[in-house]
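hiii, so i know i said id send this last week but things got crazy w the move. better late than never?? heres the sequnce for the chain we talked about at the cafe, plus the structure i predicted for it. fair warning i was half asleep when i ran it
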Amino acid sequence: MRISASLTRIIGIANVVVVSVAITGLSLMPAEDRPHAKPQVAAKAQETVPPLNPTPVGQPPGVVATPEFARQVGANELGLVPVLMYHRILRKRKASLDRTPDQLRTELEKLAKKGYVPVTATEFATGDIHVPAGKFPVVLTFDDGHPSHFALDGTGNPAPGTAVAVIQDVAARYPGFRPVATFWINKEPFGLRDHASQAAAIRWLVEHGYEVANHTWGHTNLRALKRKRVREQIVRLERLLKKLGAPPAKTMALPYGALPGDKKAARTGSWDGTRYDFAGVFLAGAEPSVSPYAKKFDRGAIQRIQSNGKTGECRKWCSQYWLEWLDRHPGERYVSDGDPDRISMPGELRGNIGAKRGLQVIAY
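okay and structure toks below
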């Protein structure tokens, strides 16, 4: 990544600032909206829902790339990828982290028009990126499993104004824009408290290609916990996912972007006989992620970008700034070769490849 010296200096403090913004935003929420505010209710024993077998949605047919073709489309699969972070989607914003349905729609439509194609967090972290040649992957992520992310209306469709409804609508208007995203949930997904409603919500999302994964049980700052409690927070949510029929989570997002003292405990471990092993652990900001094929890719601390404008603390590290920066620096952006079995990049970047994952390499 070739960026200016001044920008490099601010990135060093960016994660700290974004975490502070997140904590401030949560403190401004009404108590009933906070992900950890509702009292824990002793749950009755519930039968585990049979596990769902999700199938990828809207993946384009692959091509067989050649050096000539890769050069023609400007492929650079060692480039930067925006992983966008959303919280509540409210008609009237109550905190700096909130976005309105119209703001979400506007941002997604801009992405679609510019040639971005959504992939899930798991697809990105594992390098299973199916994007048409010449297009750019983007990862849409939503924290906390808020009711504004997903709800079903009386007809069994996503309720208008929810994040999923907006994504589905934009995808219908822009057919190349895959309707996929990752929802990292806590103990009461989408504000639902009864088992049947939770299971129905998870089933709809998984069957429609969305990823539902781990944001810990109680949205606790893992930095303040001992290793055993970190593992407990993660495992309890994994057990909930299993009970609701979701596949085991392959990714997790850190509450407040805070890594525990034992950083490895966020990615792999066990508690009370249940193990977890994530392909990717995601931070709270504040720059595009390097390619999952790059040497510098750290699957235990994957960068994200807060969705927001360019005012105040977001002047240089939220989505509007970074998407405009990538437009001005197209050589830094991940550009797909359209071939999921090959990694293509300009010849001078070949030395930056990390794990090849069994894929063939094209350096032109």
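btw Residues 1-45 have pLDDT under 50 and may be disordered. thought thatd interest u
miss u guys!!
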